[in-house]
Specification:
Layout lengths: L1 H15 L17 E7 L17 H8 L3 E4 L2 E2 L5 H10 L23 H7 L3 E7 L34 E5 L36 E2 L10 E2 L7 H18 L4 E6 L11 H4 L7 H26 L6 E7 L32 H4 L3 E4 L8 E3 L4 E2 L3 H9 L16 H4 L10 E5 L8 H4 L1 E7 L2 E7 L8 E7 L15 H25 L15
Parallel strand pairs: 1-8, 1-9, 2-11, 3-12, 4-5, 4-8
Antiparallel strand pairs: 2-10, 5-6, 6-7, 9-10, 13-14, 14-15, 15-16
Length: 522
């Protein structure tokens, strides 16, 4: 009897230590939910191998098919290009509300409420790693330049100014490469140039990581060896281990540079793709390198004993780059939407529908491929707020996202609130389709699209209507078939646009953040 009791006690001990889940949990490890948000750059919906893509992505495939994951068929980026989507991840609002009209336009205002601030209110430690792309880090390094004065600007935003306790970040986009800064700094000698067929490579972007330096920045100018994405995960690893040692819950945002131009893969990854073009070797090689970094994240969580209670999201910031000829040697841009219409910068599905996975072992116990429920990066902040039971410092400000807790728990099958997009580039750009304001408004299976040629919220013309569940490739415009539905969604889109205009005029007051090259979208 004594022996049986001892065996029973031992079994309870093993289960309480998490060994029944294949994971060891160190004594004293915090059991609160941790958050990690991983985001690729310019990765197409059809790129990963789990979506029948060319890229070899075994770690993403395993994550997508895990019993502890939800694979979102309709995962949407908050914008059809990088900076807008990054703003939506942080604020839970459409990027136009918060002064981010387009890529590289304006700065995220300091008065916005962000996911980092939500975590901090709940006693969490927060970290940003990688591409920031939401403004200059200081007046000394203004980006983009101010066309009014052509001088240093007094407006700046870095991850620390919007709530992150720590950051190891790059200011604008950084050239994805086999080694940091393509293995070189000025004067650009012996650079790794891959398929670009050039003798030098302008990789002159630095990492910033020091809150105590002037303007909260200190450039990392050391030549760092190894893959870009893997180094970001090394920084994450140091942070996570420190939080585990301190019994401290955390939120980490990791924005990879892969696979934004310029993409150059190490031979180790290029050689995995025989029989394709040199550009494809680099493109898919960079995605496989990033996938390896994501595998290192999984190992980190298991080694530190927090795999079960860490919510991990993965998505891309927009669809793949336009397939027009590449700028550095006459090559065609790789990247796949797997047949979805449109690409980066467009509000068709190929521009905004992206790879999307949620892993959360303590809450998800059976794999789900969620086919029809639309989720978006604007939902991240409301979900965190719900789970941590915190309130925004601006409770009266409009919020576009919703908490996803009910759909994660299987209690909700239809999204209770529509999703909306509006995007345009500078009208000076000599591409007529980009000089227009593109609007998309999605209510579950229905998607309304309009193209505008003026700034008036009510001026919505060139209507299109699609049933995205039945026609994900947007081949059959139903505007004339369902005129009542079209009119309902047109009116709803106008009301939403009016709401956005009020936000940037009265909440964030974006005129203070606007340059002549980044005019308001409405």
């Amino acid at each position: 009897i004594y022996r049986d009791k001892m065996l029973f006690v031992l079994l309870l001990c093993l289960l309480s230590c998490g060994l029944g889940h294949g994971t060891s949990v160190a004594k004293g490890v915090n059991k609160k939910t941790n958050f990690i948000f991983l985001m690729a750059d310019d990765m197409g919906w059809g790129d990963p191998s789990y979506n029948n893509g060319t890229a070899y992505t075994p770690n993403l495939d395993a994550m997508a098919r895990s019993n502890h994951s939800i694979l979102w068929n309709r995962m949407y980026a908050g914008g059809p290009v990088c900076s807008p989507t990054r703003a939506t991840v942080l604020t839970g609002r459409n990027h136009n509300r918060d002064c981010i009209w387009a890529a590289g336009c304006n700065h995220l205002p300091h008065n916005v409420f962000t996911v980092a601030q939500a975590a901090n209110l709940a006693g969490y430690r927060s970290l940003h790693i990688g591409k920031f792309h939401l403004g200059s880090f200081s007046p000394q390094y203004h980006w983009p330049p101010n066309p009014r004065t052509h001088k240093e600007d007094t407006i700046w935003t870095n991850p620390g100014s919007v709530g992150f306790d720590e950051f190891y970040s790059t200011m604008p986009s950084m050239e994805t490469s086999a080694t940091f800064n393509c293995g070189c700094f000025k004067p650009y000698k012996n650079c790794i140039t891959g398929h670009y067929n050039v003798t030098h490579f302008p990789c002159d972007t630095y990492w910033y990581n020091n809150h105590t330096a002037k303007y909260g920045m200190s450039p990392e100018e050391t030549k760092l060896q190894g893959d870009d994405g893997h180094h970001q995960v090394e920084v994450l690893s140091q942070f996570v281990k420190q939080q585990v040692a301190n019994d401290q819950p955390f939120l980490a945002v990791v924005w990879f540079h892969n696979v934004h131009d310029h993409f150059v893969a190490a031979d180790k990854y290029r050689n995995m793709y025989p029989g394709v073009t040199s550009a494809q070797k680099d493109y898919y090689g960079c995605l496989t390198a990033m996938d390896g970094a994501i595998g290192n994240v999984q190992k980190l969580l298991k080694d530190t004993g927090i795999y079960n209670n860490t919510m991990v999201w993965f998505n891309s910031d927009n669809g793949p780059e336009d397939p027009a000829e590449g700028p550095w040697g006459g090559w065609a841009w790789p990247g796949s939407t797997n047949g979805l219409k449109g690409r980066k910068r467009e509000v068709y599905e190929g521009g905004i529908r992206v790879p999307g996975i949620l892993q959360w072992p303590e809450r998800i116990h059976k794999h789900r491929h969620e086919m029809n429920y639309p989720v978006c990066t604007v939902d991240y902040l409301p979900t965190v707020m719900d789970l941590l039971d915190v309130k925004s410092t601006h409770p009266d400000w409009a919020m576009d996202g919703i908490s996803l807790v009910d759909v994660i728990d299987g209690k909700e099958t239809r999204r209770p609130k529509p999703l909306a997009w509006q995007y345009r580039l500078n009208a000076k750009i000599p591409y007529s389709r980009w000089g227009w304001r593109d609007v998309a408004y999605t209510d579950n299976e229905w998607k309304f699209i309009a193209f505008l040629n003026s700034s008036e919220p009510s001026d919505i013309s060139l209507y299109q209507l699609y049933n995205i569940v039945e026609d994900p490739f947007e081949r059959h415009d139903l505007a004339k078939v369902y005129p009542k539905r079209l009119d309902e969604m047109r009116k709803a889109a106008i009301a939403w646009r009016e709401s956005v205009k009020r936000s940037y005029n009265e909440e964030t007051m974006c005129n203070a953040y606007t340059t002549n090259d980044c005019l308001p979208p409405m």
